[in-house]
Amino acid sequence: MEVLKGTNWTDHNYQMPLIIADHGYDVADPAWKSNDEKYTFEEYVQGKVAFYQDVTFIAQYKELAYVTIQYSITGKDGKPIVDEEGNVLSVGKLSLETEQVNPVIGQPAGSKVVFDNANDDYVFAYWLTPNQQKVYDFEIMPTQKDHVWVSETYKAVFLPDENHNGKPDENEVLSMYYDANGGVGSVIDEMTYHVKDQVLIKDNAFTHPKENVIFIGWSKQPLTVILADGKAPQEMLQPKDSFIIMETTTLYAVWAMDENGNHIPDYQESLSMNYDANGGSGSVIDEMTYHVKDQVLIKDNAFTHPKENVIFIGWSKQPLTVIPTDGKAPQEMLQPKESFTIMETTTLYAVWAMDENGNQIPDYQESLSMNYDANGGSGSVIDETTYHVKDQVLVKDNDFTYPKENVIFIGWSKQPLTVIPTDGKAPQEMLQPKDSFTIMETTTLYAVWAMDENGNHIPDYQEERFTVTFIAGEHGKLLGTTTYKNYLVKSAIHDAQHYKEPTPVAEDGYVFDKWVIVDKDGHALLEVAEPGAYVIHGDTIVKAVFAKDDNHDGIPDEREEKLRVNFVVAEHGALEGTTQYNEVLANTKLKNVIDYQTPKPKGAAGYTFDKWIVKTVSNKEGIEIKDPSEYTITENTVFYAYFAKDEHGTDPIHPDHGDGIPDKYQVEVNYEVKNGTLIGTRKTYVTLYDENNEPSQTGNGQLTALQIPLAIADKGYDQSSLQWYPVWPEAGMKIKEKMTFKAKFETADYQLIIRYVDEDGNRVAEDYQTKIAYLNRYEITSPHVDTYVLENENDHIITGSMDAEDKEIVVHYTKDIHGTNPKHPDKGDGIPDKYQVAVHYEAEHGTVAFDRVYVTLRDEEGNYTIHGSGKLRVDQIPTATADEGYEQESASWVNKKPTSI
Q1: Rounded to whole angstroms, how far apart are CA atoms 374 and 30?
Q2: Contact between 673 and 690 (Cβ < 8 Å)
């Protein structure tokens, strides 16, 4: 270019050409050099020197050094991602892991593409630059916008994606919803969750609009109402349960039918149909399993009653006594082949009724009448009373008359008889007015007529008269009238007017034995069972005979059979003591037998005495009794001692030791705990007793205080949150069947405090305080503090698990008021000041572009250190310019020339 001689640069505002460096080079500082040995380029362009001769300005270049850019895959903490055993996981791939970059012109620019994930549980989140900036582009070109002067590492951060939706779990906010699924009401969870949070399931507050429909749990699928013959749904959750949430979730109320209103879902109830002989014997079995509201076809009766003249008339849901002759028909009785709707396990009891006349019709359904027949006479005798089988009938007086003279009424007969002539005989089984008899069927009494030729109102055939005398033999006496006169020949003793058989009374140790007809000398002629029925043929003496009765059973000893009694073991035991008694009088209680003692049952190992069963020839099935000594012997008898398993007991310390009570009368009670420990028993047994306080398989038992363990919460769980399911076990609680009580503790919340202090322990920011559930993870970002930087860059995000009751973490900050930027040396650069030293510049007879910079010290591995060494960067070395009157080329540095090498 041409300039006017004598002018200077500033007079014409000359422009220098643009310098473009070759690849691998950059423009030096200063960029131009003059070939004038007297004046420098700076003096010319600053207008200090005028142009008086040709001058050449030479562009200055310098060779560029390359820096290394590395790319790596890390987790959020900037470290490789490892599994539980410390092995590095492969979660993704990079197209390039290292490259050489020109720090000034940024060549090559770089293009780092994250390949597809290699692990479905992680997903790419962002790039983390050396200055901790996050870049969310899938590709990063770090040198495209920024000059890179030193070797750096760019990190591709992968974060967990455990629900595999392509989003980092930490960025997701999940919700929990509850659906009434046909019901009404509201259940709301206002909590906000993250992936893998624990969700505590809410109690149900919905109701179903239909009757007999109950809530039974929650399901992740909407289900229809479960019917009685349905099945339990899979994977159903219950209130107070917890689960790990992976995505926004809706739980649907699960409803089930409960037709019988017992708060147990019908599908869980298996009902049975039982038949009870109700005093009878035999077997009627229904092996079907029913559900609520099933139709039951009632079985035929196969039971029999041990008593005669008792018949089966139907089934009842209540045990009824045998319906007597004068009883009433039971209410709501069911018949074989009928059907009904079953709502619960049901027992039908056989209903029995008396049938004294054996016509297969229950006596209570039969109405009998009493009729009177004149039997050739005339007139009327009417009985309007309605009778039942075995009622007592009071015989009516006669109101009939006979049409012929000298014929009189002498009684009633159940058969029509002809008129009894003078030489006739008294009819058999004749009844008299005011007599009574037991009616068994509708009956007609016929008037009995006899000849009375002399008109004295005595039947001619009775005209001869005799005397009957009753006397007492030894060891007794008679009470009442003992002499009756005016008997007609062949008349019965009880035919006498006002006749009443005298009562025999025996001395102590004796009993009335029999009536005997004796002659006048006292010799026995005939034994009679019923003296009143004896037909006399002349004067008659009736003697009461008394006999020995040592066992006081009202039967003469000489008439009683001598019986044998044996005691035997059914199995699994032995008897101690006398086991056989001979010569036992019939109708004698065993306790009255001389020297009797009930033998003592002793069980074999693992067995104990259960019961006595007494068996006889007439009762081979046997009956259970409590005390053999109170049993009355009526025939040869065998008492069987039955023993039962006794491997358990009610002692909570030794539940598997027998306690002398058969196991079949005891039910097992178990205890379980979640998130805690049980102190005491985990298993015990409770004995069931009936209303008479006797062990019974269908009775009730009670828990004792010693049978209930103490539940202690595990570390990290709240003792006060203890809940027992299905109910709290308490001393005195009634137990009817095997039960399991489950204790559960909820997670405890602990205090976390993070303190932020400087190197002297002084607080630099407000403490962070929060409560976190035990073992839950936390992730807290440390605050930015002006003029401070974290002592440890890994403390930028504090992570961990709440594994202690109270936890305090101290985060250390250090001063950062200086930086390596020469333009802003008093502005922090994210590196602690203690790792940096100041470099000062001064110029004598000149000036420097800046007078101070800071250099970071590092050890041999490149880590920050107080005792390491640092290097000046090119931009940290100032330009020194000579004052006017001083040569620029004469510049020299004291000590050592600053360099970037």
Answers
A1: 168
A2: no
Let me know if residue 424 belongs to a domain: yes
The H-or-E segment that residue 10 falls in is helix 9-12
Nearest to 804, CA basis, from 781, 782, 772: 772
Beta strand pairing status for 370-373 and 443-451?
parallel
Which amino acid, residue 48?
K
* pLDDT confidence of residue 206: 95
Q: What is the DSSP string of 675-722?
A: SEEEES-SEEEEE-B-TTS-B-TTSBEE--GGGSPEEEEPTTB-GGG-
pLDDT tens for residues 2-11?
777 777 877 7
Residue among 390, 386, 381 nearest 356 (CA): 390
CB distance 70 to 102 below 8 Å: no
CA dihedral 647, 648, 651, 652 (to 10 degrees): 130
Residues 348 and 409 placed together within one structural domain of the fold: no
Q: How many residues does the chain have?
A: 901
3-state per-residue secondary structure call for 415-447:
CCCCCECCCCCCCCCCECCCCEEECCCCEEEEE
CB 372 within 8 A of CB 383: yes
Are 198 and 747 a contacting pair, CB within 8 Å? yes
245 occurs within a structural domain: yes
Quote the domain boundaries for residue 54.
9-63
Nearest to 614 by CA among 637, 598, 635, 593: 637
Looking at 57-71, 356-370, 464-478, 521-535, which range is the least confident one?
57-71
Amino acid present at 890: S
Over residues 383-415, the pLDDT tens digits come to 999 888 888 999 999 999 999 998 999 999 999
Tell me: do 708 and 759 sit in the same domain: no
Three-state secondary-structure class, residue 591: helix
Residues 399 and 415 in one domain: yes
Provide the token pair at 705.
């205080």
762, 788, 815 - which closes a domain: 815
Same domain, 326 and 358: yes
Backbone angles phi, psi at 413, to 5 degrees: -135, 150
On whether both 190 and 243 belong to a single domain, the answer is yes
C-alpha span between 735 and 702 (Å, rounded): 6
| C-beta contacts of 327-333 below 8 A and 24+ residues apart | 327/353, 327/354, 327/364, 328/364, 329/364, 329/365
What is the chain's Cα-based Rg? 60
Q: 513 vs 555, 586, 738, CA distance in Å?
A: 8, 16, 60
> Are 517 and 494 a contacting pair, CB within 8 Å?
no
In a domain, 656, yes or no: no
Does 293 lie in the same domain as 359? yes
Kindly state whether residues 455 and 510 are assigned to the same domain: no
Contact 317, 349 (CB under 8 A): yes
Burial class (CB in 10 A: 0-12, 13-18, 19+), 308: exposed
Q: For residue 133, what pLDDT is reported?
A: 83
Which of the listed residues 462, 487, 515 is the one where a domain comes to its end? 462
Asked if residue 411 and residue 372 are part of one domain, the reply reads: yes
In a domain, 425, yes or no: yes
Look at the chain and report how many structural domains it folds into.
Answer: 8
